[in-house]
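Exercise 3.2. Students should predict the tertiary structure of the chain below and write it as structure tokens, then compare their answer with the key that follows.

Predict this chain's 3D structure.
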Amino acid sequence: MPDQQQHQPSEPSEQEQLAIERQRPTEALGRLARRQLGEPDVPDTAPEPIPTMQSRRMGRLGRLRWLALAALAVCVVIAGSVALYAHNAQQGAGRAPVTTETGRIHEFRLPETGSRPVSIVQGPDGNLWFTEFDGNRIGRITPTGAISEYPLPTPDSQPYMLTAGPDSNLWFTEYNAPRIGRITPDGTITEYPLPSGAVVAFWITTGADGALWFSEYDDKIGRITTAGAMTEYPLPARSNAFTIISGPDGALWFDEYGNKIGKMTTGGALTEYLLPTINTNIDGITAGPDGNVWFSDYASNTIGRITPSGAVSEFPAPSTYNELNDLTAGPDHALWFTEEDGHLGRITTNGVITQLTLPDPNSQPIGLTAGPNHTLWFTEAGANAIGMLTLA
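Answer key:
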């Protein structure tokens, strides 16, 4: 068990803790993914076996997707853990660019319908890379909008979160398969199974030690080297870590169930900080341009900031701001975040919040990242598109 320190100004009362448990069930498998799929909260019961979780996700996704994946499985032969796929780049179709006071917005539709893009990062090749949760592909889009797609070797693995690795490749988690994936800039995909007994990995980030770090459902933080060697660091019971990022101080920062933020050194030493707001539901976390860590709280509709020493500030969003999701440091020395109801938000490092309405009210923006040439790129899960905002 790693070394632990606790920084807790006050523990929630028994009544407050009960409210947390009712609001945010401990056994929930992926808060963000469930909302993306339009699924209800998971009942507060013991975790179910994977087959039951798969059947629970069927619902409105429809049987057609499963039939299509079954047909695909017949055609795909998985030999070892490495697979290379040919692909065709094509210009993403979309609506005409829209100019706002904040900048100019372009939208690029994905070639295949129902792809549901989620996470997006800038790659080492200068392009933007993204996951297609329902399409079971990793996508790439050039700064001019040319899109390439790479199917995953494992059918219905549901690629989820993505990060640029220290080895000039992209690394990602698979929500419906206990694996970590790697894709090279030319499209070669390698999959690494999680250690025995691991259920699923959520977020993934590059650590200061040159390895990849990821959060696991079963109360662990995982580490994988670029050669594929894995180590797991246990967390306290019922931590249910979800987001994770490498902070400005070189430590790993992540949220924990029970309104906590955790910090782990690359040596495995753990410190926990209690947040002032109960019932938190943190869906985004990033290293800020001010040397602090920032996070978005879906439940309380706030943007939070925590210093390397654990001092927390919270900035409530106006009531017109809803469903705060991912956030990232922008090219303008501010933080930007997505709102699933069709908006982008911006917060300065001193807490001033503004909002930008996207052209498509059904866009459902999820992930976002800073891109080249003073741009922000974001996924539109509802519109099956990738968006680009060129800042004014």
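Discussion points: Confidence is low (pLDDT under 50) at residues 1-9, 14-88. The radius of gyration is 20 Å.
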